[in-house]
């Protein structure tokens, strides 16, 4: 397969965000991680009431204001980008914010990742051999959210699989990831291993398997990602 | 948007089953959702474990639940008070079980349950008979008790205001156990004095974010 | 000594309350227990800013309204009596209220007692042989307050000492009481044992010792309680 | 009444000594009391242990404390961010020590410290490298980490409003770590945007009761 051709068939970040957005169910409370996951918010269908939680104490976070002049330095996403408060949103302090997280109130979290293992282990906070590191709320959120939805490119820049048999990067939380959304596929983490649920248009199951370390089972209802 | 509003206390408590663990907020008679406790009596469920600071004033609230035979056990800090004759009589007759918990520990155990913490270490109760059977742990030469988080199937909450998202405010010291119990149950049911439009509550003044609330009814309780 | 005569020399509950009130220092945060301690509040000198904490979530509790019609069912003392909120007072929920207590913010608590031992052990929550019992906030407050001021009659109705060598009643908190205010005397609990600081007018040190189980040391500055 | 008001950030931070442990509130640059951190830089104290979610944005707040050589160690959840070049450079050069703590655990440890709890049991961090050296405990077959309460000598707080008793409100998500840090230090120092008369704040809207506050100054921080 020609690499150039394959790259052209990979989902864009925006297409991935759109697919993740579809996953967010009406009435859910969802935490959105920093980086790529922030793209998800504008793609949530308007007829769905998905409530966003930001760990800095915003329950009911809305998108950035249309007018830059309306940006408020005290109303930011966890990634310190402009945000807003929806009508009926509320502010809580940091301990109360993580009480929501660990108390099981997050229906889902959308997080980036360096690696996901076939048992659902998540690595997303520290690069290999890094000194120090920045953990932020990743460990609390990965442990607390009912569903941990990972959004990442399928392979590293060097072409190495990021869906692996066992993590080589430092673990964020064990057995936490429930579904993986990449630029090639949607993969469910189940008690019986990884299940390939959806393929990006033009990508084959064999291509996904070749870019994935553990064995994938094909879903009985394997389908194409709507883009 | 999820519709959390129901029309009556009866609709609000529908589905509570025999044997459920139910948190009932309030301190004395202040902040007790009596519309909801009355509705549970009328529902006629049995074998409840009730978590509440008091055991009910005269024949209201938890006292009525006791009187009507709904309660098997009560987890409580101050069950025997001059105003709590119903509990006293039933407890002395062996008709209700008691787990006595210091008030601050009861509050903190509920907060821990709502915050996803398994337990916490405290000095309260060390060396007392309420420490019996509890695990202790020494930290820097001091002995602490390990107290466990507490959750319930249902929490019954009395609020002052509610909006369509379930955001709540409370009235003065009627706040007491309400905000913490609202975090610590699978089903959080609210009796609110009044409903206001979404957006009418300042996000800085909301005490319980609506995400905690499953159902609410508007019910103006007799004083 | 004639009993009738002695009883006449004992402080009234109100005189005891007045003496305890003098102990409360400007700027202090103080929790007032249910029962006899509630008499203390009106005796605090008007020029002293003593802030009262009530465990049901009132920071800055004021006295009952002058007009009964102003009583508010949502503004009660811990003993469920009418109260008010001072200007600049605040409401907190129950976990935050006891965070104040255990977090070391109470400068003092005024509590009733069944017994106090010479090492400061406090018994005030349960009668001997009682079934069940009502503990309320006593254990948290006795452990948390910087000073635990006990206010009680010096002896039981049967004439037995309530200041004892070792508790026979169930303990509330070990090594917690700092000062004892009775209808006969004021006694400090120190590392070197009990010190008799003050005597009710007309009561002698010998009378106090006779009504007290452990040995009392006389303070170098032993004085009469101002009534 | 105790006078808690001082005139300037410099007066407010007077007396902070070398080697003190100092909580600095804020998330990113929101809610950081930069008037107070600047005043500490001018005071020239050394060897501070700073407890803060971030390590400072550009050269403000904690980053300026680092730059001016006031800091020996930082207890932090997200020290290495694109906006935190000062920390990165100093840490990589071995000039500052780091204790990395998950954000929710940092918040909860501060709350525990302020609530008089020695520690608590949590699932966060179990099986990760941040669990190394920490005590674990099994409850009902599940392994939990024991995390310890955290207190400081000084907490630096940024408030929106203050009254003469020290009651505080906060602005939007600038609330973040402020209310919990205000409970967990021996000396709580506040920089408030405005002062209002006693009684002007509704007791139901006060977020930090004034009993927690030792000193405050009114200081309007540049955005």
Task: Give descriptors for this structure.
heterotetramer, A: 227 residues, alpha/beta, 10-stranded mixed beta sheet, 3-stranded mixed beta sheet, 13 strands, 28% strand, globular, B: 223 residues, 8-stranded mixed beta sheet, 6 helices, 20% helix, 27% strand
Question: Can you characterise this structure?
Answer:
The complex is a heterotetramer, with 2 copies of chain A (227 residues) and 2 copies of chain B (223 residues). Chain A is built from 5 helices and 13 strands. With 227 residues, chain A is an alpha/beta fold. The longest helix of chain A has 11 residues, at 13-23. Chain B contains 6 helices and 11 strands. Chain B has helices at residues 9-13, 34-43, 62-67, 85-92, 103-114, 178-181; strands at 21-24, 48-51, 71-76, 97-100, 119-122, 136-139, 142-148, 152-162, 168-169, 185-195, 215-218. In chain B, strands 1, 2, 3, 4, 8, 9, 10 and 11 form an 8-stranded mixed sheet that branches. A 3-stranded antiparallel sheet of chain B has the order 5-7-6. The A-D interface holds A 54-58, 72-76, 80, 85, 91-95, 97-98, 101-102, 126, 131-141, 143-144, 170-174 and D 27-31, 53, 77-81, 83, 91-92, 98, 100-105, 107-108, 110-111, 122-130, 170-180, 207, 223. β5 (119-122) of chain B pairs antiparallel with β5 (119-122) of chain D, so a sheet runs across the interface.
